Records
---
Amino acid sequence: MSNISIAQFHKVFFEESLEGLDAMEAALLALDEGGDAELVHSIFRAAHSIKGGSATFGFPDMAALTHEAESLLDQVRDGRRAIDKSIIELMLRTVDCLRGMFDRAQNGQPLADADSENLKQQLAVAAGNNVPAAANKAAAKPAASSGWIIQFRPHAGMLAGGNDPLRLLRELAALGQLVVEAQLDRVPTLDALDPSECHLGWRIELTGAVSQDAIKTVFEWVEDECDLTIEPLVAVAPPPAPAVEAVATPAAGAGAAAGTTRAAASSNDAGSVRVAIDKIDGLIDLVGELVITQAMLDQFREEFDPSRLAMLQHGLAQLARHTRSLQESVMGIRMLPIGSVFNRFPRLVRDLSQKLGKQVKLDLVGEHTELDKTVLEKIGDPLVHLVRNAIDHGLEMPEKRRAAGKNEVGTLRLEAFHRGGSIVVEISDDGAGLNRDAIIAKALQKGLIKSGDDLSDEAVGELIFQPGFSTAAVTTDLSGRGVGMDVVRRNVVDLGGNVAIKSRAGQGTTFTITLPLTLAIIDGLRAAVGGECYIVPLVSIVESVQLRADAVRSVTGGGELFRFRGEYRPIVRLHQQFGCANARQNIEDGLVIVVEADGTQIGLFVDELVGQQQAVVKSLEANYRRVDGISGATILADGSVALIVDVAGLIRLQSRRKAA
Amino acid sequence: MGGKSKSEARVSMPADCRIAEVGVLYTQLRGALESSQIVLDGTTVDRVDTAALQLLVVFQREAKQRERQLQWAGVSAPLYDAASQLGLTEALALPAKKPA
């Protein structure tokens, strides 16, 4: 029995369609700024493929909506009407509405809602307004008829091939009014039935101003798997106006589908990545090299001879090189350009600046910088918060900017680039900068600080990352969304990254987000503690020092501090933290690794450093349970498990202990 | 399957009633034919395709031929919609009105 089901293609369809929507949106925005006719074509193409796909994959509501959008676009494309702001606005709303529908489709909810129905009507009305007349339209397309009789007889193997007549008929129903008559003459007895074979046939009457091509398109995929005849309906009924007809029939289908509640199929949503062919080819090449090296080593094993030791060394070196390249290439598959995240901002900036009456120029730089897919998916929301804040609170109103001697149009710049082993994303505006006095006043009121006199600008900037510190009430009188910067920072820290802020009064604010290239592999230092091994991520390490006993002070309450570069920093003894036996106790016998996260430095006391290594991160949570101060585990060369130290977590633990 | 003594058989259709699942349903339905009264429960059907509906049509015919009493205990909206889209409501003897 075949297990083929159309549902398995849904994911790809969703992904492709969402990409299509992104392209559509980008083109609409470009058109808004006076783009050329080619843009209309690309918008049309995107709408068309979403329409086709949604009908194929059984989302009639979506097909109906895109059908209306497509009709309107078709008129623009044919030059029958000029593109104007109202059409662009309508299309942008369609894009939003479709995104909502895809969201609901992924969650198995009914697709249509009041909004989408409303929008569909508006699109139909807009498309109808400028249509000369229904009859003219029909006359302009000779292949159109007021109706068709379709004789459709699937071959026995069609169902097993993943093509469901039900879907095709639903697609036809989106084109016009259907009268379906099932033909059961070839149905076998129950005992003789192979349930995966199709023995049904249909005679379908389709009324509506539909072209023969449109019907053929529906059956395009199955033309080899069925007997199909399409003949014009002889009795010609007066053709209804296309706009009215188009609204009426799909809406009926939409209503029916809206009543259905689909089971959520997204529970095991593992996600997928689309990979460029050249990356795959590179991988295949590397695997080929690996096989050759392996054969070479194999040969050495068979004809073992100490005189050929050089060859063995050569082979092993090659093996190491290929393995490393292979690893890099495989990691590369997970890497996607950050442009996919950046793409949402032109729209956001346009909408927001219009709403607030500000003028904003958006600069996107480094869209091709690649980031791990997981990081990419999770960085979107923090970026949106920051961009929103920058426009809402950072950039001033045009009058105010003029008064300050600045260009009326504010600039918002998003830039992504590599620095060291990390990806840096900077969000900078040339707005008013942080309002230092207001922030200090608020912080004093909240009891976060005792006095604001000797605070550095950095320290003031840090204040806005404190939980419960709403910038909205402070820096502008606009009703802000109260987006907590602490949430932004937490999201970024969860990704193994960091956020820093730099602000200059009157000149603007820059947020710098530093992110790891990948979450799957980290570079780390292996440190021995007692009989155990811990990995400290290299990115967090400032340096390691051997301390003299007199450099360490005990403080009341049991903590220890050490003097480092003129300042005292807390020491965390890893053996105490993680309960390791047989560890070195005397501070002079071991080493202190100075680590930093969230702008705070602490010292980790360990027995000794063993070496540097790349660690493939395994989730501790998934395999065991969450442990404070540990971000994951890795397998060492000898097969033993080493835990990876969560530096930010340890610092949080340390400050909590201090507060307690 | 057991003897002819069973007077009533009840077949509950699964939520996902599509080609991948029809094999199980096929076996269940064949078993149900041993009873004189058969109740089909389609209340929980969420997804259904042509393969499943065709099986039900064939089953209906078979039941009629063998003079079994066949009743629907319930028909979900997706099941009803699919059947009416394929023009099979009559052949399946579905209740005339769509359930709420």
---
Amino acid sequence: MTLIGQLALALGLLLAVYSIGANIYGLRRRSGEVLASARHALWAMTAMVALAACGLWTGLLRSDFSLEYVASYSSTTLPTVYKITALWGGQQGSLLFWTLLLSIFSAIVAFQTRERNSEIAPYVLIVMAAVAVFFLAMLNFVTRPFDAMIPVPAQGTDLNPLLQNYWMAIHPPSLYTGYVSTTVPFAFATAALMTGRLDDGWIRSTRRWALFSWFFLTLGNMFGARWAYEVLGWGGYWAWDPVENAAFMPWLVMTAYLHSVMVQERKDMLKVWNLALIGLAFALTLFGTFITRSGVISSVHSFTQSGLGPYFLTFLLVVVVAYTGLLLSRIKDLRSPAELESYLSREAAFLFNNLVLVGIAFAVFWGTVFPVISEAVRGVKITVGPPFFNKVNGPLALALIFLMGVGPLIAWRRATRKNLVQSFTAPAVVGIVTGLLAYAFGIRGWYVLTGFSLAAFVLGTIVVEFERGVLARGRMVHERPPRALVNLVAKNNRRYGGYIVHLGVVLAFVAIIGSSFFKTEVKQSVKPGQSFAVGPYRLVYLGLASFETAHLENLSARVNVTRDGRSLEVIEPAKLFFKRQQQPATRVAIRSTLAADLYVVLAGVDDKTGMATFDVFLTPLVSWLWLGGLTMALGTVVTMWPNAHEREVIAAAARRRMGELERQLAAEVRGT
Amino acid sequence: MRYLQPLVVIIALIAAAWATAAAAPTTTVQDVAEGLTCQCGCGLTVANCNHPNCGFSVPMRGEIAGMIRKGMSRIEILDAFRHKYGEKILSAPTTQGFNLLAWVIPYVAVGAGMLLILIAVARWQRPDAAEGGPQRQATVSAVNQFDPGLRQRLERDLKRQL
């Protein structure tokens, strides 16, 4: 196993290097055969990395402790599902998984570009292979997943108990997929800069990749929040930990990018900005990995610290310097006759939306690195925690929500008074009335009232847009509203998918306000048979139940949740003890409704008296966050769905380009 | 540049006011504990530490309750802990000296971005377009004088698209 794995990774590295060389040689010699060989090398590289990953998975599933990695992150008693997820539970394995994803995406791009984008394809593949070379070099020389364990232990150390949760089965793969897939638009952008083909071709070619990346970054962040909510047992889902921040920043920048490319597609503006954004998004994914691996900034996610930090930092610097240099070298060619008629226009709204999104990303970055800066400048260690991020980002989030309502409804070029009145009167009234109603129902605090009002305003704008479309279809093709709604979304999926995403953001925003400002906590120690109240619920402690497996000990408290004297369900918060790691863990019990989550933690048990201590949170609206995440994901799928009209546009662009090339060729032939 | 200086000052004042307002005195254990970072390694605040029998946050919450009973304000309690454990105990930077940069820089960056947009938009605005100039008026006029036959064809095509 060790030999096969090491050999596969070594061959993978050689093939990646060969692919770069063959692409360069093929470009110089204009040899289609050599370029095809470079592409084949990438496919072979993917096969080698997949072989290595399968090798490590096999080692994990067979509990082959002759491999140091398996001995460090698995055990014979570890459930099978966690043996599979242990691939990304440790340093070497997660880097191998990253490389596997990168290889698969490179192979897909190599396949997609075998006939399309032939002018820039070799450059795209050079960039992707260069990134693969870095990761494969790490796996071959710095952090090797197939190092042998001598002597071979009879039992492994086991996976960190915090990672033995089903959200860990999907959170890292989603986030990694989001991270790694930013490489594709980045590679296309770099190729566009290298070749001087600076029109929006690279954006059109990678639109789905960018959305794919955003989709998985969204899910990755959501799943991570859900994992924190269920596993960490403090009743929250986001602690502004550096590693959480590292996952959030690329999401923000990619969101800005997905909006600003619309301006380039429509008005041929913001070329430099879009190229800068995609470079920044890719750099931030590397920064995120650097933070996770280096231990430079302390984090609760420090499961896998190592000496990789300097290598990642160097690679990050090389990428940033090279890309910036390339961008600056093309700056003259990127200038376009930009034109913006008014601040009251959609393009201006997108500019401000980009400012706020990148502003939040910068604030998060600044807060994340400030402890390092402080220590370097003053020699004083400080902490930058949730209060800082909430206060700094709070007002920016309100501005973003406001712009999310304005952007889709305001006219391109210049909004007239009539356009503004027609589009915004109803949503503005809905927003104001919501704020007043909230106040009348006793809700206080300017942020909460403004937040709810703005959320209602955005919801109003989304409804107005759907209503307009449905009514238009009713008038033009005489469809009934339900059918008109389906056809409206199906035929304009890019636009209406975007609105569904906005709806998801509104749901998540309302959830964040509700769960942040109205959470209540009750701590209570009770004996079996005793009860206590939490909001509208009464919790009756029935007693303890325990069981033991070869892997863990489980001590559960059985709690009957009642409301108005009616029993709703029996929940079982538990304390776990993982035998191999000799570590305790908490398993919370959650009763989730749309109104609020009842979140129960078994904080302690007195063996002598049988008294149990519970830490209970009643968190309003938190389930809207997961609903919002799913809605965002659904909207992205709708937006990505293939559309006949879009295919026609792409085909027309390809025909135009073919025509241009034929004319160029004819001119060259005439010249010779 | 002459616009930049007052802008920076205004942003700094707003940020400082925001931070100061946020540090307004309250006397609940929860609010004080939110301002302190647990040192047990959980990476959370003393209010949110997820270790039920944490050797740091549990006694500290008791200590905070005692200080509140003695009549100490939130700021006084945070100061007392800062003197005892150093700045790292606070969950957010102070708003003095070098730490003020932590609060001000994000707003300065957004302000600078806003300024850049204003400058860019000013350059991008065509004088005639801003006034609804001749080209735009010509377009509007052309639309108004649209050939009815052409309009009919356009509507038919639009229906097909829909």
